[in-house]
Amino acid sequence: MNEDDETLSGADDAAAADDTTPDGSAERAETFARRIGAVLDPALRVAYLRHELAKLSRDDLARTLAHIHHHAEEKRAPFPQTMLACSLALEQLPEQRSAAATAARALGLDKIAALLTERDEEEGRALPVPDFGKGRPLTLGERKSLARGRDRRLLQRALRDPDPTVMRILLKNPALTEDDIVRLCARRPAAPSVLATVFRSTKWIVRPRVRMALVQNPHLAESLALQIVPLLSPYDAKRVALSSQLSEALLAACRARAKG
What we know:
Elements: H1 3-8, H2 25-37, H3 42-53, H4 58-73, H5 79-91, H6 94-107, H7 110-116, H8 140-147, H9 152-158, H10 164-170, H11 178-186, H12 192-199, H13 208-215, H14 222-228, H15 234-241, H16 248-258
Helix pairs in contact: 2-4, 2-5, 3-5, 4-5, 4-6, 6-7, 8-10, 11-13, 13-14, 15-16
């Protein structure tokens, strides 16, 4: 491990905020944050970072994310938004995400490794497909078609569909409100893959109430929940830290965030 790696892998990656680094990762993190701060459209933020992150080596990617994540934990604008956009971009770059996770472990960047490590979205017991009142079970194609409709009664039933492909269509439906999505994210039991689909939606993950509902749901994958924590206010993080249903790693992150 070289001198820069030791700097980045200090206590909880805290030294990742150095102003300059031999590999350029600190400067790159600052550039990404500055450009993300100038772009209001979440989808454009993700598209920009997807293009830029794809060009980095796995070590450079891990180091750059360590800098961004450290500043995000300090609530230094616009790093929390930049870290979230990086997370969403890497959801579309699974090979780079996996390689960066391996590099982060080798470099001792434990927080970054945890954030990047892909875990199976265990469904637990299978959740039932909702009854749409048609007198028979609907095919997946029929349920996708209903998810594109405007009938509020049917959309409320579609929000209980456990299939993430139905949910991807539903989340783009302009007839849905933020209250609908908050209720969806707060529901228990919930299909982890459905919650992950909400997390990956650039339309909805930018909403604070949606993020709060997601992070409090024990069915959301821990690796995704941890990426929400830097975006919480200290007050909200304190509320989440009181939960008895969440993982210890998530509760510890929230307790640290609650201290401001």
